[in-house]
Write a structure and sequence with these properties.
Layout lengths: L2 H28 L1 H11 L4 H23 L4 H18 L1 H11 L8 H16 L4 H22 L16 H7 L1
Helix pairs in contact: 1-2, 1-6, 2-5, 2-7, 3-4, 3-7, 4-7, 5-6
């Protein structure tokens, strides 16, 4: 392997480590309520979520195979497959937040973006493991993300009512009169 090839793979891995947590933090910034739902749904377990995520994987494989058989639809098949994988990886934001929440309990609830960043870096670094991370962990993460998103569709979001502001002290009330 030439030096240039080594550097290419190094920069691909570096871009991967930077881009996935950034994708999850962007999802949290764009859809904060949905990301909170994903985080709550991630608490329900990983095994059921994985099997729920297999349904869109099987369906998308069938669609990609059918599209690739049609003339002039090869590029659309690749784009569709990439969109499905990206959709799954966006859903992993809930697991990234959950991992950050569990590993750094001192930050719980104070700064959710730090939990997302830290959990995302942990997940991205595990996906970088040679062979195991590329072939097993990354596809499993995508399947889990799909399952998490589907499971979140049926998750009831317990939105806390807005708290009323505290009553003003009597000294302020008297001064206002």
């Amino acid at each position: 392997m030439y030096s240039a090839q080594v550097w290419i793979w190094f920069f691909v891995a570096l871009a991967f480590v930077v881009s996935l947590p950034a994708l999850w933090m962007a999802a949290a910034g764009l859809w904060p309520r949905t990301t909170r739902t994903w985080r709550r749904t991630a608490r329900k377990g990983i095994v059921v979520t994985f099997f729920i995520g297999l349904a869109p994987v099987v369906l998308s494989i069938i669609i990609v195979l059918l599209m690739s058989k049609l003339p002039k639809f090869g590029a659309f098949a690749v784009l569709f497959a990439a969109a499905v994988v990206a959709w799954g990886l966006i859903g992993v934001a809930g697991f990234a937040a959950r991992i950050g929440e569990r590993m750094w309990p001192g930050m719980r609830g104070t700064e959710p973006w730090r939990e997302m960043r830290n959990g995302g870096l942990v997940l991205a670094c595990t996906a970088l493991l040679p062979i195991i991370g590329w072939v097993f962990i990354l596809p499993i993460l995508s399947i889990l993300g799909m399952g998490l998103q589907i499971r979140a569709w049926f998750h009831r979001d317990e939105v806390a009512p807005l708290a009323s502001p505290p009553a003003l002290p009597e000294s302020v009330m008297v001064a206002a009169e």
